[in-house]
Design a protein that fits this description.
The chain is of the alpha+beta class. It is built from six helices and two strands; from the N terminus they run ββαααααα. The chain has a two-stranded antiparallel ribbon. A hairpin with a 3-residue loop joins β1 and β2. α1 runs antiparallel to α2. The longest helix is centred in the middle third of the chain and has 15 residues. The protein is globular, with a radius of gyration of 16 Å. The relative contact order is 0.13.
Length: 107
Amino acid sequence: MSTKISNSTITIGNGNVINSGDNVQIHNSNIEVFDWDTLKMELFEVMHRLPNDAHELHTVRTAYEYTVTKDQLGFIDFIKKHRDYFTSSIFCNVASVFLVDFIKMII
């Protein structure tokens, strides 16, 4: 998958900035889109905040496993298939703003 960006400034990774007066093509296979350590930490926190009987808990545990293996395509597919759990009020009430926004971006 590739994305064309025109007349924009984008930041990738550790503050690496690309200024585009013309066109830039970004190929997802060439950059790491996810900060796996942050995602893993955020999902770990959510697992400990969710009630043991919440349906969302099993779903978050499975998503966490994808962050451990750094399976980006599997992670995205799983989030999309289980969007109802990741957009539920109980999930959104215990997850950080970062994680909620990240999930919305994927969906």
